[in-house]
Automatic annotation (TrEMBL):
Residues 5-257 form the Indole-3-glycerol phosphate synthase domain. Its EC number is 4.1.1.48. Pathway: Amino-acid biosynthesis; L-tryptophan biosynthesis; L-tryptophan from chorismate: step 4/5. It catalyses: 1-(2-carboxyphenylamino)-1-deoxy-D-ribulose 5-phosphate + H(+) = (1S,2R)-1-C-(indol-3-yl)glycerol 3-phosphate + CO2 + H2O. One of its GO terms (biological process) is L-tryptophan biosynthetic process. CDD domains: IGPS. One of its GO terms (molecular function) is indole-3-glycerol-phosphate synthase activity. It is an enzyme of class 4 (lyase). The gene is trpC. It comes from Edaphobacter dinghuensis. This is Indole-3-glycerol phosphate synthase. It comes from the Bacteria.
């Protein structure tokens, strides 16, 4: 039986194939060359040396929650997150399921100095060209969505293009695959992309197998300073926070409070 992840991947492949047939490759190459990647992993490590490194996610909607933020202006959101102390941004670019776009990534990236992640379901090298051309400094590779040969191909192409990779895992087997393939920036997503259920305990469980030279990012279900403290104690140095901030009247103030550990139990 097909899962939601299968549905998203099938739609993504079809849309990428369609874009490839009409793309102006010369223009994309020029735009990609004009953007100098800002060091996503290095930025997280530098921030984590001082305090929790927060990746603030600019996200309008999701398949499981529907519309998250109606008052959605990526440029202003990016600036307020940077001002509030975000170490990096994550920008959703999947249109069909998350109401994202590459244009959102582009305007957010231009507005800030901190590095930006293209958050999408990457299945083709062409998407990496799109990413850098739109101002991305890093891409997401989801182990559940890709074979080891594809993970290797996209990892190597990202390195060639100067893009960092956040490799996302959801269980121990996927973590072992990521480690064996040499990924040094690994995100543990507590949300199962097949069912979209959230299991926060999974984040704690997988931390015990964290390689010493790997920066681990806790993803999904982070809504309080207590969550960050708990995951920090388990060994995480960076934290991707999206919905909990995007639902707030003032996302920047919510992030500042989270970093100051002054927020209530749920921000």
């Amino acid at each position: 039986m097909a899962t939601k992840l299968d549905e998203i991947l099938a739609d993504t492949r079809a849309k990428v194939d369609a874009r490839k047939t009409t793309a102006d490759y010369a223009a994309l190459e020029r735009r990609a060359a004009a953007h100098m990647p800002r060091g996503f992993a290095a930025g997280l490590r530098a921030a984590a040396a001082k305090r929790p490194a927060i990746i603030s996610e600019i996200k309008k909607a999701s398949p499981s929650k529907g519309l998250i933020r109606g008052d959605f202006h990526p440029e202003s959101l990016a600036r307020m997150f940077e001002t509030a102390g975000a170490a990096a941004l994550s920008v959703l670019t999947n249109e069909a399921f998350f109401q994202g776009s590459l244009e959102y990534l582009e305007v957010a990236s231009v507005a800030v100095k901190i590095p930006c992640l293209r958050k999408d379901f990457m299945v083709d090298r062409f998407q990496l060209l799109e990413a850098r051309a739109s101002g991305a400094d890093a891409i997401l590779l989801i182990v559940a969505a890709l074979t080891d040969p594809m993970l290797t191909e996209l990892r190597d192409e990202a390195a060639r293009m100067g893009l960092d990779v956040l490799c996302e895992v959801h269980d121990r087997q996927e973590l072992e695959r990521a480690v064996q393939l040499g990924f040094k920036l690994i995100g543990v997503n507590s949300r199962d992309l097949r069912t979209f259920t959230v299991s926060p305990e999974l984040v704690i469980e997988l931390a015990q197998w964290k390689p010493a030279d790997t920066l681990m990012v806790a993803e999904s279900g982070i809504g309080s300073a207590a969550d960050i403290a708990r995951y920090s104690a388990a060994g995480y140095e960076a934290f991707l926070v999206g919905e909990a901030l995007m639902r707030q009247p003032d996302p920047g103030a919510a992030l500042a409070a989270l970093l100051a550990c002054e927020c209530p139990a749920e921000i």
